[in-house]
């Protein structure tokens, strides 16, 4: 199958009614292309996960990857750390994502201890972990559910554990936020998306992806008990934070 078969063209034709965005089989088929062309800095964030784990993860500890999609974080960790360095548990709500991730990890990381679960991160029965990765997942949860999820993850982490939280964010200042949104649309245009695709995707995500401010994220992490948190990466209105639990 050619690379063109995997190109994100979901919103490339006019739709009478734009359905709410969901991570179904159509999205799974083109997800690597979609996220590469839609999320500024995604590759850099992935690339740092292995370095962060090498620095902060206790040897042999569990890593949770919540909203794991196709398992890209697992591949990054396996490329940096030996098989005995960690146990990986990916979790996703999409059956199509889970099936593809299991296939990929079994083929690409046969020596590492990895599992992918289909489940809801709000109700999952967590085991103690040394690191939790939450890449562009919290933004898809209802805002009223987010505090409880972060509180549960704080309790899940071992002393000295870290949470990596990556999200689309909004600026508190309306003028700044409008500028960031327009430059993000320029980014998508430069990556080959048409005006129709940008418009229809935005409609599909309305009330599905609801971003917080960076300050809101930091405040939530502090309320949950994290002793410190840093914004270590930002590209336009996409950012990644790391939060630390005291040892």
From TrEMBL:
Q: Extract the Pfam families matched here.
A: Methyltransf_25
Question: What is the reaction catalyzed?
Answer: prephenate + S-adenosyl-L-methionine = carboxy-S-adenosyl-L-methionine + 3-phenylpyruvate + H2O
Q: State which Enzyme Commission number(s) the record gives.
A: 2.1.3.-
Task: Kindly report, in one word, the top-level EC class recorded for this enzyme.
Answer: transferase
Which family does the UniProt entry place this protein in? Belongs to the class I-like SAM-binding methyltransferase superfamily. Cx-SAM synthase family.
**HAMAP family recorded:** Cx_SAM_synthase
Q: This protein is called what? A: Carboxy-S-adenosyl-L-methionine synthase
User: What taxonomic ancestry is recorded?
Assistant: Bacteria, Pseudomonadati, Pseudomonadota, Gammaproteobacteria, Oceanospirillales
Gene for this chain: cmoA
């Amino acid at each position: 199958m050619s690379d063109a078969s995997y190109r994100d063209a979901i919103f490339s034709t006019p739709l009478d009614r734009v359905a709410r965005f969901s991570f179904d089989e159509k999205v799974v088929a083109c997800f690597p292309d979609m996220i590469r062309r839609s999320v500024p800095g995604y590759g850099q964030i992935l690339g740092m996960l292995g370095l962060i784990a090498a620095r902060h993860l206790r040897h042999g500890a569990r890593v949770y990857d919540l909203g794991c999609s196709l398992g890209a974080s697992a591949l990054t960790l396996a490329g940096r750390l030996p098989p005995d360095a960690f146990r990986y548990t990916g979790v996703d709500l999409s059956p199509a994502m889970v099936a593809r991730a299991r296939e990929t990890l079994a083929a690409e990381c046969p020596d590492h201890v990895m599992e992918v679960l289909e489940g809801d991160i709000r109700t999952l029965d967590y085991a103690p972990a040394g690191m939790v990765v939450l890449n562009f997942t919290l933004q898809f949860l209802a805002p009223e559910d987010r505090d409880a999820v972060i509180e549960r993850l704080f309790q899940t982490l071992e002393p000295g554990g870290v949470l990596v939280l990556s999200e689309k964010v909004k600026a508190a200042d309306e003028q700044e936020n409008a500028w960031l949104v327009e430059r993000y649309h320029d980014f998508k245009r430069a990556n080959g998306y048409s005006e129709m695709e940008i418009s229809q995707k935005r409609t599909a995500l309305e009330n599905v992806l609801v971003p917080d401010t960076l300050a809101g994220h930091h405040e939530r992490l502090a309320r949950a008990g994290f002793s410190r948190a840093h914004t270590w990466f930002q590209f336009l209105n996409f950012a990644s934070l790391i939060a630390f639990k005291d040892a």
